[in-house]
Amino acid sequence: MSKLKIVGMGPGSPDYVTNIAKESVQNAEIVIGAKRALALFQNWISGESLLLTAQNVKEGLQYGVKSAKADKNVVILSTGDPGFSGLLGSLLNIAGKDVDVEVIPGVSSIQVCAARLRMRWDTADLLSFHADTSYEKKMKLVEALKDGKRVILLPDPKSFTPKDIARFLIDQGIRGETPVSVCENLTLENERTVTFTLDRILNQEFDVMCVMVIGED
Question: Could you tell me the CA-to-CA distances from 209 to 14, 113, 138 in Å, in that order?
Fold first, then answer.
């Protein structure tokens, strides 16, 4: 059976790239990934590289699967960890049963955010709004907070930003005094972590690469 790898690139810093990720890319004939991912691995790419954009994700993954079926050594790079708001789901749908997909995990920004805040996250709810900003998904956040849970989430950088989230939650009856932490550009030189209350987030702007933690400790 044909085989390809999907590799987690980590949160952004070379310091958080695993050795197995580097080795996988070094040995690959074709490396597929977004601009930031390809730049991070540029010193280890020796074969062909294909840039993924918002417009060609499906076509790029299809090319990777087709190349793997032709016995090429293919690596697809996914931000953070492939299994959380990464490319794994889309790749598995395209690969079907004809290609064996090996997943190389990476350090997720969720993990780094929890570490920066020195919080345990095995009892927190995890949500990502990167691919789904439906009302039903938003209400899962509301219900979790009303149940007294702490939530770690990835905002959508365009349609459900941190201040959009704050406004929605307050409109749904969540207290404005609810504590919120935002970690942005994690592991990069311009990393920043701030802690506010929900009502103060309404007037704040954050980078597109950020993680929110909402709720009582």
Answer: 16, 12, 19
Report whether 68 contacts 74 (CB < 8 A).
yes
**Domain positions in the chain:** 2-104, 109-214
pLDDT band at 142 (very low <50, low <70, confident <90, very high): very high
Region 177-201 average pLDDT = 96
CA distance 155 to 41: 26
CATH topology of domain 2-104: Cobalt-precorrin-4 Transmethylase; domain 1 (3.40.1010)
Does the structure show a pLDDT above 70 at 1? Answer: no
**19 CA to centre of own chain:** 20
- 3-state SS, residue 21: helix
> Could you tell me how many helices (H) and strands (E) the chain has, helices first?
8, 10
Given a contact cutoff of 8 angstroms between Cβ atoms, the answer to whether 4 and 102 are in contact is: yes
Q: Which pTM was predicted?
A: 0.92
At residue 217, the pLDDT reads 77
Report whether CATH 3.30.950.10 matches the domain 109-214: yes
Task: Describe the crossing of helices 135-146 and 162-171 by its angle, rounded to 10 degrees.
Answer: 70
Q: State the Cα–Cα distance between residues 192 and 136, nearest whole angstrom.
A: 31
Reported as a single tens digit per residue, the pLDDT across 117-131 is 999 999 999 999 998
Q: Is the pLDDT at 206 greater than 80, yes or no? A: yes
- Selection from 77, 99, 86 nearest residue 25 by Cα: 77
